[in-house]
Design a protein that fits this description.
Catalytic activity: shikimate + ATP = 3-phosphoshikimate + ADP + H(+)
Oligomer: single chain
Function: Catalyzes the specific phosphorylation of the 3-hydroxyl group of shikimic acid using ATP as a cosubstrate.
CATH topology: Rossmann fold
CATH superfamily: P-loop containing nucleotide triphosphate hydrolases
Radius of gyration: 16 Å
Subcellular location: Cytoplasm
Shape: globular
Pathway: Metabolic intermediate biosynthesis; chorismate biosynthesis; chorismate from D-erythrose 4-phosphate and phosphoenolpyruvate: step 5/7
Strand order of the largest sheet: 3-4-2-5-6
Distance between the termini: 11 Å
Number of domains: 1
Family: Belongs to the shikimate kinase family.
Helix content: 40-55%
Length: 186
């Protein structure tokens, strides 16, 4: 079956939950554009994310993030991967709820840690105990992520393709997001 997106699907969740990898494959499966809000922020500012944080601070970064997400939501329906803190912002939640659909890629802390440990470019984990910081971020953010209308669990035993299929299954239950267009031709 082939589908057409009616609204932008916004992937939210913690760093390492698979928003970018799942988002790319989901966009391919739905024949939609994929956009990563962090990549768009870098493009708009000419600074990498860690440099934005260190030069201007998290508040400045979050303001730019909100501007970029709103611009992307106003465009054609697409798959949008957001940074881990984007859904924490009240204005982002309102904009995403009004103009798109949030899908929470939910993952346990140990899986997230396995995916992010040792990787640079995670300014929030630049602490003395990054695992503890990640756990605390999960504890504080998960109740807010849970406000997303769609939840899809990410497991280490599932491939990206498995997760994409589960996201499509959830989206197909909602007639406000996907429209069936017939059999896939390619």
């Amino acid at each position: 079956m082939s589908y057409r997106l009616k609204k932008t699907v916004v992937l939210v969740g913690m760093m390492g939950s698979g928003k970018t990898s799942v988002g790319r494959e989901l966009a391919r499966a739905l024949e939609a554009e994929f956009v990563d809000s962090d990549e768009e922020i870098v493009r708009a500012s000419s600074y990498e994310i860690p440099e934005l944080f260190s030069r201007f601070g998290e508040v400045y970064f979050r303001e730019k993030e909100t501007q970029v997400i709103l611009r992307l939501l106003k465009g054609e329906p697409r798959i949008l991967s957001t940074g881990g803190g984007a859904w924490m912002n009240h204005a982002n939640r309102i904009n995403i709820t009004r103009l798109g659909l949030a899908v929470w890629l939910k993952a346990e802390t140990n899986l997230l840690w396995a995916r992010v440990k040792g990787k640079s470019g995670r300014p929030l984990l630049a602490t003395d105990n990054p695992y503890q910081t990640l756990r605390e971020l999960c504890d504080s953010r998960n109740p807010v992520y849970a406000r997303a209308p769609v939840h899809v669990a990410a497991f280490s035993s599932h491939s990206v393709a498995d997760t994409v299929r589960r996201v499509i299954d959830e989206l197909s239950k909602r007639n406000d997001i996907l429209e069936e267009t017939g059999e896939r031709t390619g």
